[in-house]
Amino acid sequence: MNARNLVNIYGDMLYRICLMSLRNHADAEDAVQEVFLKYLTRAPDFDTSEHEKAWLITVALNQCRNMLRSQRIIPTDPELLHPPENPPEQNQILDALMQVPGKFREVLILYYIEGYKIKEISQIIGKGQSAVKMRLAKGKKLLEQIYRKEYLS
């Protein structure tokens, strides 16, 4: 697939994942750019488009982890993360999700926002299915606690 088609097909999805991981527009854009550079220089041959998509997501999550480890990421004002068409409740859930620790947030994003199944998430993040289920359950619990504390008290 040529680079332009790749960006058109996967660019928005990768940007959302990186933005939710890094919580900063400029850093998310940098991460996505790095993902596409790695694709152009190191991507293996893919059997299916789903395999290609999973590879891109894995590289994006790894890039975000590396950026978070190597530098201090300064979160963007949460208001900038809200698309204008979102209802207020959806923005509150997004704000609460941004406060969930990274390893749980990643799984929640992949499961609820990107629609991956537990087995697929397991392959993407390189953890067993039981670990994914645990992170999903713990992440949901943390999200609920944060939401209740911030918006229902």
- Note poorly predicted spans: none
CATH superfamily of the largest domain: RNA polymerase sigma factor, region 2, helix turn helix motif
**How many structural units, i.e. domains?**
2
CA-based gyration radius:
16 Å
- The CATH class of the largest domain, by name, is Mainly Alpha
Q: Please give the CATH architecture of the largest domain.
A: Orthogonal Bundle
CATH topology of the largest domain: Rna Polymerase Sigma Factor, Chain: A
> How would you name the oligomeric state of the polypeptide chains in this document?
single chain
- Report on the biggest sheet: none
Summed over residues and divided by their number, the pLDDT gives a mean of 87
What letter string, H or E per element, gives the SSE order? HHHHHHH
Amino-to-carboxy terminus distance: 50 Å
Briefly note the structural class of the backbone.
mainly alpha
Strand elements, count: 0
Helix content: over 70%
SS element count, helices: 7
- Basic shape: globular
| Beta-strand proportion | under 5%
